[in-house]
From TrEMBL, chain A:
Name of the featured protein: (2Fe-2S)-binding protein
Gene3D superfamilies registered for this protein in UniProt: 3.10.20.30, [2Fe-2S]-binding domain
Organism for this UniProt entry: Nocardioides alpinus
Pfam families: Fer2, Fer2_2
This protein's pathway: Alkaloid degradation; nicotine degradation
Domain annotation 2Fe-2S ferredoxin-type: ranges: 4-80
A GO molecular-function descriptor: metal ion binding
Record's keyword terms, sorted: 2Fe-2S, Iron, Iron-sulfur, Metal-binding, Oxidoreductase
Recorded superkingdom: Bacteria
InterPro entries per the UniProt record, alphabetical: 2Fe-2S-bd (IPR002888), 2Fe-2S-bd_dom_sf (IPR036884), 2Fe-2S_ferredoxin-like_sf (IPR036010), 2Fe-2S_ferredoxin-type (IPR001041), 2Fe2S_fd_BS (IPR006058), Aldehyde_Oxdr_Iron-Sulfur (IPR052914), Beta-grasp_dom_sf (IPR012675)
From TrEMBL, chain B:
Record-given protein name: Xanthine dehydrogenase YagS FAD-binding subunit
Keywords: Oxidoreductase
Domain FAD-binding PCMH-type: 1-230
InterPro entries given in the database record: CO_DH_flav_C, CO_DH_flav_C_dom_sf, Diverse_Substr_Oxidored, FAD-bd_PCMH, FAD-bd_PCMH-like_sf, FAD-bd_PCMH_sub1, FAD-bd_PCMH_sub2, Mopterin_DH_FAD-bd
Length: 157, 335
C-alpha cells in the first residue's frame, strides 16, 4: 500500500497525517480527523454535500485526493462558526428555516459562505444558478435562496 | 481501487523549462502505466470506479501552467488554469461562446477544481463505460461490443458513431474551442507540437478504444485561442436547468456583413463522439445571405447522416433546432 504524509491546516489547526494515496480529502476529514460534519452524499461529484473550502475556495472534498491537499488550508463546517457564534450564513439558514432533514445543509452552508466572497451576483436567479452545485432532496430550495440573499444583505448592512 | 504511486510535479526551480521537470520527463519517456492528474474530477473518479487505474499518477496541478496571456488577438491559456479562472478573465468575459461554455458546465465547485487541459481530455460519461461490471464496452475492452446500443442511451452521440460505440464527448469547452479554431500546445517524447482541437479527438466510428491523438505521456501545456472578430454564443439544452451535461448544444461564431455571412464557425455538443465541428452546415452558410431558411437548410445538412438508436432518436431534431436558434441569436437574423 502506498502511503504519503500530508501536511494540512484544517480550521486553523495544523495536522500531519499519513494517508493511503487513494484516500479522498473527504475521508481524511471524516475518518482520520473525526470531523464528521462534512457529509458524504454521492461520493462522485454529483451532489455537493461534501463541499469544503480549500485555500478559501469551495470544492468537493469527495473528488479531491487527500495528497493534493498537502500544504493547503481547509475549512470545514466545524470551522466557520460555533453554537454561540454562528457564521452569518448559518444564522440565515436558521432564520429562514432553510433545511429539513439537514443532510445537505453543511454543504449548502459552506457553498454559500464561499459565494458571499465571490463577485458578480445579486439576484435570486443568480443564487439559484450559483448554488446549483448543491442538491437538496427535501427540496428546501426556495428557503435556501432566501437564506443566501438574507446573509448577503446582513453582510452589506 | 488499485494501489498507485503519487508523484507531484512541482519542480518550480526548473519551471522555466517544463521539459526538464523530472516527474514529467519520466512520464514522457516511460509512459506505460502512468497517467497525469490535474483537478482529478475525471481521473480520480475513474480510478475509484476501477475503470482506469494507472500504477503511477503524476500530479501536474502545481506546475507553472496556470497563467493566461493575451497577445494581439491570441489568448494563451496554461493547461492548469481552472475553468472558473478562465471564465472570469477580462478577455473571456466578453467572449460569449467561451464564457458560457465554461459557466454552463458542471457546478461552481467543480469549475474551481477542474482545469482546462483536463476538461478537453475528459473521458466519456457513458454509464456502461464507467461501470467495470459491464462486460460489453469497446472503449474499455476493445472488441467486447457495446452495451449502450441496446441499453439506455439518452445522453449518447449520433454523429461520428456507429453500432460499435455511441459515446459522447461531453466537454462544453471543447465545443466552443472547435468553433474558435483553437489549438493545444503539447510537450511529448518528440518535443513540442501544436494540434488543432479539431484534430485532437478520435471519432468513435474510427476507433472507439482511442480518445485522442496524443501519444502516451504527451502533456498539454497550453491552449491557444484566437480571439475572433465576430459575434458569438453558446446554447446548451439539458434535462435540468443547471449542473447537467448537454443533451445538445451549439457554439456559433459568426460575422454578418451587408446581410451576408462573411464568417461562420460552428461547434455542436451532446451529439458527437468528438467535439463536433459542423463543417457541412458551415459550407451551406458561408458567403450566403443569412436567412432562417438558410439556417434550417444548414442544420439539416449537418444532421443528415445521424446514427440513432431508440434512446437517441430525438436528438437530430433537437440538435437542428438548437443550431437554428443559436444562429438566429448570434446573427440577429430572424426571417
Ligand atoms: C458531476 C459532474 C458534472 C460535470 N458536468 C460537466 C459539464 O456540464 N460540462 C463539462 O464540460 N464538463 C463537465 N464535467 C466534467 C469536468 O468538467 C471534467 O471532469 C474536468 O474538466 C476535468 O478536468 P480536471 O482538471 O479535473 O481533469 P483530470 O480529471 O485531472 O484529468 C482528466 C484527464 O485528462 C488528463 N489530463 C489532464 N490534464 C492534462 C494535461 N495538461 N495534459 C495531458 N493530459 C491531461 C488526465 O490524465 C485525465 O485522463 C462534470 C464532471 C462531474 C464530476
Ligand atoms: S457507447 Fe462506447 S463507451 Fe459506452 S458502452 Fe458502448 S462502447 Fe462503451
Ligand atoms: S459527496 Fe461529494 S459531491 Fe456528493
Ligand atoms: S434538507 Fe434534506 S436534503 Fe436538503
Amino acid at each position: 500500500m502506498s502511503r504519503l504524509s500530508v501536511d494540512v491546516t484544517v480550521n486553523g489547526e495544523q495536522h500531519s497525517v499519513e494517508v493511503d494515496t487513494r484516500r479522498s480529502l473527504l475521508d481524511l476529514l471524516r475518518e482520520d480527523l473525526a470531523l464528521t460534519g462534512t457529509q458524504k452524499g454521492c461520493d462522485q461529484g454529483a451532489c455537493g454535500a461534501c463541499t469544503v473550502h480549500l485555500d478559501g475556495q469551495r470544492r468537493l472534498s469527495c473528488l479531491t485526493m487527500a495528497v493534493q491537499a498537502d500544504g493547503r488550508e481547509v475549512t470545514t463546517i466545524e470551522g466557520i462558526g460555533t453554537p454561540d457564534d454562528l457564521h452569518p450564513v448559518q444564522q440565515a439558514f436558521l432564520d429562514c428555516d432553510a433545511f429539513q432533514c439537514g443532510a445537505c445543509t453543511a454543504g449548502q452552508v459552506m457553498s454559500a459562505a464561499a459565494l458571499l466572497d465571490e463577485e458578480g451576483w445579486s439576484t435570486a436567479d443568480d443564487v439559484r444558478e450559483l448554488m446549483s452545485g448543491n442538491l437538496c432532496r427535501c427540496g428546501a430550495y426556495p428557503r435556501i435562496v432566501d437564506a443566501v440573499l438574507s446573509a448577503r444583505t446582513a453582510r452589506e448592512a | 481501487m488499485r494501489d498507485f504511486t503519487y508523484v507531484l510535479a512541482d519542480d518550480v526551480a526548473s519551471a522555466g523549462s517544463l521539459v526538464h521537470n523530472d516527474a514529467v520527463a519520466r512520464a514522457v519517456q516511460t509512459p506505460d502505466d502512468v497517467a497525469y492528474v490535474a483537478g482529478g474530477t475525471t481521473q480520480y473518479d475513474l480510478m475509484r470506479d476501477g475503470v482506469w487505474s494507472p500504477g503511477t499518477l503524476v500530479d501536474i496541478s502545481r506546475l507553472p501552467l496556470a497563467d493566461i496571456e493575451v497577445s494581439d488577438d491570441l489568448l494563451v491559456v496554461g493547461a492548469a488554469v481552472t475553468m472558473a479562472d478562465l471564465a472570469r478573465h477580462p478577455s473571456v468575459v466578453d467572449l460569449d461562446v467561451l464564457r458560457d461554455s465554461l459557466l454552463l458546465a458542471a457546478s461552481p465547485q467543480l469549475r474551481t477544481m477542474a482545469t482546462v487541459g483536463g476538461n478537453v481530455l475528459q473521458r466519456t460519461r457513458c454509464r456502461y463505460f464507467r461501470d467495470p461490471t459491464v462486460t460489453q464496452c469497446n472503449k474499455r475492452v476493445p472488441g467486447s461490443g457495446c452495451a449502450a446500443v441496446e441499453g439506455t442511451a439518452r445522453t449518447h452521440a449520433v454523429l461520428g458513431v456507429d453500432a460499435g460505440c455511441i459515446a459522447v464527448h461531453a466537454s462544453d469547452l471543447a465545443v466552443a474551442l472547435v468553433a474558435l479554431d483553437a489549438r493545444v500546445r503539447t510537450h511529448g517524447p518528440h518535443g513540442g507540437r501544436t494540434i488543432s482541437v479539431t484534430q485532437l479527438h478520435v471519432r468513435a466510428d474510427e476507433d472507439p478504444a482511442r480518445d485522442n491523438t496524443l501519444v502516451a505521456g504527451e502533456l498539454i501545456t497550453h491552449l491557444e485561442i484566437p480571439l475572433p472578430d465576430a459575434r458569438s454564443g453558446y446554447l446548451k439544452v439539458r434535462d435540468r436547468a443547471s449542473y447537467e451535461f448537454a443533451l445538445t448544444s451549439a457554439a456559433v461564431v459568426a460575422r454578418v456583413e451587408d446581410g451576408v455571412l462573411a464568417h461562420v464557425a460552428i461547434g455542436l455538443g451532446g451529439v458527437g463522439s468528438v467535439p463536433w465541428r459542423a463543417t457541412r452546415a458551415e459550407e451551406v452558410l458561408r458567403g450566403q445571405r443569412a436567412s432562417l431558411a438558410l439556417f434550417e437548410e444548414a442544420a439539416a445538412a449537418e444532421l443528415a447522416d445521424a446514427f440513432t438508436v431508440p434512446g437517441t432518436a430525438f436528438k437530430p431534431e433537437l440538435a437542428r433546432r438548437t443550431l437554428v436558434r443559436q444562429l438566429r441569436d448570434v446573427t440577429e437574423v430572424t426571417a
